[in-house]
Amino acid sequence: MGFGLRAELLGLCAQLEALSNSLERYRASYSAKLSELKERPGTEGMKATLSRVLDELEAVADVVNRIRSLACSGEPGLQTLVRAYHIADQAYYKMVAGHGASVPASIRSAFYEIYRTLKSIAL
User: Fold this and answer.
1) Mean pLDDT of 89-114
2) Are the C-beta atoms of 53 and 100 separated by less than 8 Å?
3) How far is residue 111's CA from residue 123's CA, in Å, rounded to a whole number?
4) Which of these, 2, 37, 70, 95, could form a disulfide with 100 (CB 3.0-4.6 Å)?
5) What is the pLDDT of residues 22-62, one digit of tens each?
6) In contact, 121 and 5? CB cutoff 8 Å
7) 73 DSSP 8-state letter
8) How far apart, in Å, are the Cα atoms of 97 and each of 11, 93, 100, 101?
9) d(CA 107, CA 110)
10) Would you give the end-to-end CA distance of the chain in angstroms?
11) How far apart are CA 27 and CA 74, in angstroms?
12) What is the pTM of this model?
């Protein structure tokens, strides 16, 4: 593995770690808001929205963890990086197509950077 590719992989792993940390902060914040609302009557719509956002954040976190386990474990080969790219590709288009529309924009943006980096490495 050349120096340039190794540097890109290190950058990718750092991006994945930062996104994982951001996702954890968002999940903690939305969970706290949801638990506050559970005690209030008449907030069913807000509870449903927060639950949906939490589910979508969890789905993104699962994808990030899958990519991180492939790309940041040991010294991955090209086939492993292509697999990680395909996982990111599918997840990114789900987010863009509206299935993840309630995912915060900063998360979508960070995921795009990871997707773009993987694309440049794998293709």
Assistant:
1) 85
2) no
3) 18
4) 95
5) 999 999 999 999 998 887 888 888 989 999 999 999 999 99
6) yes
7) S
8) 27, 6, 8, 8
9) 5
10) 15
11) 29
12) 0.89
Are the C-beta atoms of 24 and 58 separated by less than 8 Å?
Answer: no
Tens digits of residue pLDDT in 103-120: 898 999 999 999 999 999
Residue in this structure with the two tokens 């960070």, named with its chain if needed: 110
**Model confidence at 98, in pLDDT bands (50, 70, 90)?**
low
As a whole number of angstroms, the distance between CA 60 and CA 123 comes to 23
Report residue 67 as tokens: 């990519």
Q: Check whether 80 has a pLDDT greater than 90.
A: yes
Residue 15 one-letter amino acid: Q
CA torsion 8-10-64-123 (nearest 10°) is 20
Residue positions counted in the chain = 123
